[in-house]
């Protein structure tokens, strides 16, 4: 059964920094993709192989907008992991950026009610974790507020304010790692760095699945 919390979040996800081998090339890709305002980039040569344990997901208004974002990503150099298609929940597709980051673009609508746009309704960082309940409690203990929770399968935290120059707030959610890999169409195995750093007002720490946080300005 889903549970909902109504209290105001004391802390939340404020920024996402991707660690990439070539920040200049990554910046050009994300600008063409249309999501550069939501991201920070940092140079890193840290070893990373296979599934990095997370995806960034865009929620948009309709199938035509999904197709537009997927098309722009592919034109800029992304690889299609799952072609955009209808599903039980709506319509969506999955692409992998040249830097290795996996992106899911989806809508709950199965039919377009208007023309394609470049508008993004939500950006969600979905972490694949081994134990959703335990990781949820870890974050609650650090001041994050649960917005929705479905037992040990999925948890979504309340968003905070958008970061400086950021079009909208980022959402943080937890999903079983194996289920997330299956949803994205990739093998679950992966080693090395996650190649991502989460920013918030909770200080510097590392969560049970190895995702690193660092403090950002309030």
Describe the structure.
With 218 residues, this protein is α+β, with helices and mostly antiparallel strands. It has helices at 23-33, 63-75, 132-140, 177-184; strands at residues 2-4, 13-20, 40-43, 48-50, 54-59, 79-87, 90-96, 102-107, 122-129, 146-150, 154-157, 170-176, 190-192, 196-200, 205-206, 212-215. Strands 1-10-11-12-9-5-8-7-6 form a 9-stranded mixed beta sheet. Helix 1 (23-33) packs antiparallel against helix 2 (63-75). The longest helix is centred in the N-terminal third of the chain and has 13 residues, at 63-75. It is globular and about 45 Å long. The chain starts with a strand and ends with a strand.
Lay out the secondary structure.
Layout: E1 2-4, E2 13-20, H1 23-33, E3 40-43, E4 48-50, E5 54-59, H2 63-75, E6 79-87, E7 90-96, E8 102-107, E9 122-129, H3 132-140, E10 146-150, E11 154-157, E12 170-176, H4 177-184, E13 190-192, E14 196-200, E15 205-206, E16 212-215
Parallel strand pairs: 2-3, 5-8, 9-12, 14-16
Antiparallel strand pairs: 1-10, 2-14, 4-13, 5-9, 6-7, 7-8, 10-11, 11-12, 15-16
Helix pairs in contact: 1-2
Question: What distinguishing features does this structure have?
Answer:
218 residues, alpha+beta, 9-stranded mixed beta sheet, 5-stranded mixed beta sheet, 19% helix, disordered N terminus
Rg value: 16 Å
Class inferred from helices and paired strands: alpha+beta
Beta-strand segment tally: 16
Shape: globular
- Give helix % range: 10-25%
β content, as a range? 35-45%
Strand/helix succession: EEHEEEHEEEEHEEEHEEEE
Largest sheet: 9 strands, mixed
């Amino acid at each position: 059964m889903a549970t909902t919390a109504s209290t105001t979040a004391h802390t939340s996800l404020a920024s996402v920094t991707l660690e990439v081998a070539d920040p200049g090339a990554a910046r050009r890709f994300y600008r063409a993709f249309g999501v550069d305002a939501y991201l920070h980039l940092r140079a890193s040569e840290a070893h990373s192989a296979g599934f990095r344990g997370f995806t960034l997901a865009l929620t948009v208004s309709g199938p035509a907008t999904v197709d537009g974002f997927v098309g722009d990503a592919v034109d800029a150099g992304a690889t299609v992991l799952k072609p955009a298609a209808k599903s039980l929940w709506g319509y969506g597709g999955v692409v992998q950026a040249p830097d290795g980051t996996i992106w899911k673009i989806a809508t709950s609508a199965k039919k377009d009610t208007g023309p394609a746009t470049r508008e993004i309704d939500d950006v969600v960082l979905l972490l694949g974790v081994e134990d959703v309940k335990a990781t949820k409690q870890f974050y609650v203990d650090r001041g994050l507020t649960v917005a929705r929770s479905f037992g040990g399968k999925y948890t979504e935290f309340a968003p905070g304010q958008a970061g400086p120059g950021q079009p909208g707030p980022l959402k943080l959610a937890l999903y079983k790692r194996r289920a997330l890999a299956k949803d994205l169409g990739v093998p679950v195995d992966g080693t090395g760095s996650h190649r991502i750093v989460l920013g918030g007002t909770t200080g510097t720490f590392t969560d049970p699945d190895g995702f690193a946080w660092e403090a950002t300005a309030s």
